[in-house]
Amino acid sequence: MPLFLEVHTIDGGASIEEVATAHVANLPLEARFGVRSLRYWVDEQHGKVFCLVEAPSGEAAASVHRQSRGLGAAAIYPVKEGL
Questions:
Q1: What are the respective helix, strand and coil percentages of the chain, to the nearest 5?
Q2: What is the pLDDT of residue 13?
Q3: What separation in angstroms does the CA of 35 have from each of 17, 50, 53, 76?
Q4: Distance between terminal CA atoms of the chain?
Q5: In order of start, what are the domains of the chain with their CATH numbers?
Q6: pLDDT tens across 3-37, in order?
Q7: Is 42 strand, coil or helix?
Q8: Which of 5, 40, 54, 73 falls 20 to 30 Å from 82 in CA-CA distance?
Q9: Whole-model pTM?
Q10: How far is C-alpha 1 from the geometric centre of its chain's CA atoms?
Q11: What is the pLDDT of residue 50?
Q12: Whole-angstrom Cα distance, residue 38 to residue 53?
């Protein structure tokens, strides 16, 4: 399954707790779009959230966040895993 890195920018910043709550809200939607969240990272100070997901397409990955919270990604990159 392809991997995608989504980059979100949250105006006013984002705490790890807020992102964790949002992540839980995404989980019920993942199966509908064939998406599986693998990891996320948060830069609280700059309001940046980076989500690594398996998805059939970048659009499928973006659909989970849009349907869950109406929040689109600032960018979505197809990535390959390395060491």
A1: 35, 35, 30
A2: 85
A3: 22, 15, 7, 14
A4: 18
A5: 3-79 (3.30.70.3090)
A6: 999 999 988 888 999 889 888 888 888 999 999 99
A7: strand
A8: 73
A9: 0.88
A10: 16
A11: 95
A12: 5
